[in-house]
Amino acid sequence: MPVVVRFAPSPTGFLHIGGARTALFNWLYARHSSGLFRLRIEDTDRARSTEAATRAILEGLSWLGLDWDGEVVHQFARAPRHAEVARALLASGRAYPCYCTPAELAERREKARAEGRTLGYDRRCRERDPRTVPAEIPPVIRLKAPESGETVIEDLVQGTVRVGNEQLDDMVLLRADGTPVYMLSVVVDDHDMGISHIIRGDDHLTNAFRQTQLYRAMDWQTPQFAHIPLIHGPDGAKLSKRHGALGVEAYREMGYLPEALDNYLLRLGWAHGDDEIISRAQAIEWFDIKNVGRSPARFDFAKLDSLNAHYLRQCDNRHLVELLRPFLEKLLGRAPDADGEVRLARGMDGLKQRAKTLKELAASAALYVRPRPLALEAKAAALLDRDARQRLARLGERLERAPAWSQAALESEVRALAKAEGVKLGQLAQPLRVALTGSTVSPSIFEVMEVLGRAEVLGRIKDIA
RNA sequence: GUCCCCAUCGUCUAGAGGCCCAGGACGGAGCCCUCUCACGGCUCAAACCGGGGUUCGAAUCCCCGUGGGGACGCCA
Question: Among residues A226, A264, A366, A397, which is most buried (max CB within 10 A)?
Fold first, then answer.
C-alpha cells in the first residue's frame, strides 16, 4: 500500500511549534517511504479561519523546508461531499435525526457532571417515534454508534488502545444547519485523499475511537494511526506562549535557522541511538514511526540554542551575510553597504563561532559596519586610561609604517610594541579592542584589524586617543 | 467526575531480561588552550517515581499506588 500522509492544520493562527513538529514527522515519513505528503487546510470553522493564517502556515512550512505534494485541499470547499456521506448514513439507517436542542444538551451535561456520570449524549432520539417529531426544530444527524463491546485501535506509537463503547456516545455528524462537523469532515477527507497513515498529536487519540466507528459505519478501511506525544512547556504543563508556543516565524525573527529548528524538533520524541546532529538526508533515511517515543517532551531553548550555534558555524559565510541583512537593518537602521558586506564576509569566520542566533551574530557583526566614531560601552571605556591611550597612540604610529597588513604580521607588530613597552600583550590588546570595537569582547583582535583595514584601524585609534 | 495515555540525570534521550554499580547530548562545575569572549580538548557532579510480583536474573515483563498529561461541544 502506498504511503500517503497529510498535515491538516486549521487556519486559526500561525504555524506553532507543535504543529511544525507534526508536519515534520509526516513529511519525513512520506519522504522515507517514497510516499506523498499532502496538505489540507481545515477551514470549516468559518468564524475563526483566516486567509492570513493560511498564508502564515504555508510560509512556515516552506521556511522549514517541508514541501507538500499536489494541491492544497481546503476542507470547507468539500462540505457538500461531507454532507452527502452523512445523508447516506441516514438512508442506510446507521445515523438518525436528533431534535435535542443545544440548551437541553448543555443542561443534561451539567446535571451528569454534578452527579458524576458520563457526560455523553443519552441517545434519547435514537429510537424516537417519527410521529412525535417536533416540526419546528431542525434536527442534527447523529451516528448510531455501537452501544456495547469495545472499539480498538492499533496505534503505531501508543500500541493497542481500547475503550468500552459505553464510553462513546452518538456523535453529531451534521449540524442543524446542515453543515458537517469536524469529525465527519476529517474521516471523509482522509478516505477520499487515500490517506494511509494519520500521524498527529496525542490530543487526537480519543477522536480516533469515534473516527474508527465512522469508518466502520461507512465500510471504509481505517488508516494506520500514529499519535505522537505533545510538546510541553519547561514546567511540564501545556506549552504556553511565553514558553515557546510561538509561530515558526517568531523563531525566524529570534534568529534561529530552519535546519536547527528541524533538527531540534526531530529529536523531541524521536531518537536514532546517540546521534544528535542529524542532516536532512540522514533524517529521511533513518526516520521511522516505530522509533517515536511515547512520553511527552518539554521544550528547551538552551538545547535549541546549542543546535543553532552548530548550524550557524556550519553555514556558508556569504549566505550568512545575506541572512544577517534584515537583522543588521533592524539594529542599525539601515542595511550595510557593499564595502560593509565584504568586511562582514571576511570577518564571518571569527564572528560565527561566537553566536548562538542570527540576532546575536548581528550584534557582534555590527562592529564591521558601524560608522566612526564608535560609541564605547561603559565597561570598555573604563579600560582607556591615560597610559592606555598613549600606548595606543604609539601603536598607531607604528601601524602606519607596518609593511604588511595580515593577521600574522599585525600580531607581530602588536607583540613587539608590548615587549618594547614592558607590558603584557593583554594590556595592549584589550585597550586596542576597545578602540576598534567599542567593546571588551570581540573576535581575535588581529583578525578584526585585518578585516577593518589600515585606514579604518588608524582612524578608530585616533578617535579615542 | 468518567475514559485514555505517559513515567531513565535539571532537560532531550539510548536502553526492546543478563552487554548497565545505566551510555550520549544540552545545561552546570572545574581544568587546559588563550589578546577578550567564544570555539575546541579533558575531567567531575547528576537519573532507572514507590511498592508488590514473574524470573536463576528486571531500567526493561505484569499488578497496584503516586505523579504528570490528554479527551469528554451542533470547536477544530
Answer: A264
pLDDT of residue A132: 72
- Which bases of strand B have any atom within 7 Å of the beta carbon of a protein residue? 1-8, 10-15, 23-27, 35-40, 68-76
Give the contacts of A452 (CB within 8 A, at least 6 positions apart).
A343, A368, A436, A460
Nearest amino-acid residue to B39, taking CA and C1': A353
pLDDT in tens, A351-392: 999 999 999 999 999 999 999 899 999 889 888 899 999 999
List of long-range contacts for A125-131, beta carbons under 8 Å, 24+ apart: A125/A96, A125/A97, A125/A98, A125/A99, A125/A100, A126/A96, A126/A98, A126/A170, A128/A96, A128/A99
Amino acid (1-letter code) at residue A118: T
- DSSP state at residue A292: B
Length of chain A: 465
**Grid cell locating A269:** 520524541
Residue A366 CA to residue A350 CA, distance in Å, equals 13
Burial of A413 (0-12, 13-18, 19+ CB in 10 A): buried
CA atom of A264 to C1′ atom of B28, Å: 21
